[in-house]
Amino acid sequence: MFKTILIPIDIAHASESKSVIDIAVANGNEDTQVILLNVVEEIPRWAAVELPAHIQDKSLQISQDELHAVAKAASIKTEVDVRVGHPYHTILEVAEEKKADLIIIASHQPGLQDYLLGSTAAKVVRHAKCSVMVVR
Ligand code: ADP
Fold first, then answer.
1. Residue with CA at minimum distance from ligand 1 atom 8
2. Ligand 1 touching residue 34 (CB < 6 A)
3. Atom of ligand 1 nearest to the CA of 119
4. Beta-strand (E) ranges in 1-136?
């Protein structure tokens, strides 16, 4: 059984998270900590000056709201974590920080250039120090 399971969620595909959370339930027990993570992409400074003020804060708020809705609908207690950064780097950083022993990541239907795995999923699989389960 895994002690700490990290589930990175792309909020554009938040509706798929139920099946991923069900897999976490099957791989943990009542003591397992399940963390839902969304990474809001950082807006580069040069682009930020052209964009409406507080757009990053609004994105963070939307992510928080989406993840809390996912957490509320889940059959188990989960922790919600929203960070600003680069998705794959931040997923790996949070996995180490929280001492995750399993990352469960969804793979959709990547373009042909990505072969069978999306780019974020592929980098997480390649560079994570813990086990990674890819859900298709
Ligand atoms: P696809 O093209 O199939 O969406 P990705 O590799 O981009 O492939 O995404 C696959 C998975 O990576 C998502 O299901 C999610 O688990 C994770 N992921 C992607 N972007 C983010 C993000 N911004 N925050 C958290 N997780 C993400």
1. 118
2. no
3. 6
4. 4-8, 33-41, 79-85, 102-106, 131-135
For 116, the domain range is: 4-135
- Ligand 1: does its nearest atom lie under 6 Å from the Cβ of 103? no
- Each residue's pLDDT tens digit, 14-70: 888 998 999 999 999 999 999 999 999 988 777 777 777 688 889 999 999 999 999
pLDDT of residue 109: 60
Report yes or no: 88 and 120 within 8 Å, Cβ to Cβ.
Answer: yes
pTM for this structure?
0.91
108 lines ligand 1 (CB under 6 A): yes
Contact 48, 56 (CB under 8 A): yes
Domain count, the chain: 1
Banded model confidence at residue 110, pLDDT cuts 50, 70, 90: low
Query: Which helix or strand (DSSP H or E) is residue 134 part of?
Result: strand 131-135
CB 78 within 8 A of CB 36: yes
Find the CATH number of the domain harbouring 13: 3.40.50.620
Q: What is the pLDDT of residue 32?
A: 97
